[in-house]
Amino acid sequence: GCAPTTMKQTEPTTKLALNDRVTIELTTMTALGDVIGRHEGLVVFVPYGLPGERVEVEINHVRRHFVRGKIVQRFNTSPDRVEAPCKVFGVCGGCQWQHVAYDAQLRFKTDIVREQLTGIGKFADPPVRPCVASPQPYEYRNRMQFSVSERGRPGFHAPGTREIHDVIEIEDCHISHPEIREHLRALAAAE
User: Fold this and answer.
1) Are the beta carbons of 44 and 24 closer than 8 angstroms?
2) Do residues 83 and 110 lie in contact, with contact meaning Cβ atoms separated by under 8 Å?
3) Is residue 149 within 8 Å of 164, Cβ to Cβ?
4) How far apart are alpha carbons 156 and 154 in whole angstroms?
5) Which of 88, 13, 14, 27 is nearest to 55 (CA)?
6) Cα torsion for 70, 72, 75, 76, to the nearest 10°?
7) Is the pLDDT of residue 4 over 50?
8) pLDDT confidence tier of residue 15, bands split at 50, 70 and 90
9) Residue 158: other Cβ atoms inside 10 A
10) Residues 6+ positions from 96 with CB-CB distance below 8 Å
11) Which of 64, 110, 144, 183 has the fewest CB atoms inside 10 Å of its own CB, making it the most exposed?
């Protein structure tokens, strides 16, 4: 007899190019804070969005089976969106979650753990408990690694860059421990 044939399932390959713009619905948060949307089956990773938002995205990174893009227009706003307290959020590259209400962060992070256990770990129905809220959602980080700008100021590299001229100088960092924040403000005030 004839052996059964199996059809190899192929992932969509990109038909998008750099600077193309597409409108997509964002659906799923990732562990690194990006949100996934799809365009004609192709995965589109988008930073600083939220599930449920419909957005126009400009493609800025192209790979064979996925693309990355930045939001250029938001057609609706998720109820989980909040104003980030940091004035350089989204520019400095130090944080990915400040635009998300804290209770929503906990829900999304619980979902991410469950998804990773089922998708990567192959557990059928993992008993994932809800993430435990921190009593202090800001000023918790006691270790920070800064880059130094051309002017000798502390900062972070803009996302996707490593050049000294791409360091975003910061005067304050809301996630860092109060003593670190004090030192940052003192360095910023020193001329």
Assistant:
1) yes
2) no
3) yes
4) 7
5) 27
6) 50
7) no
8) confident
9) 16
10) 32, 33, 34, 47, 48
11) 64
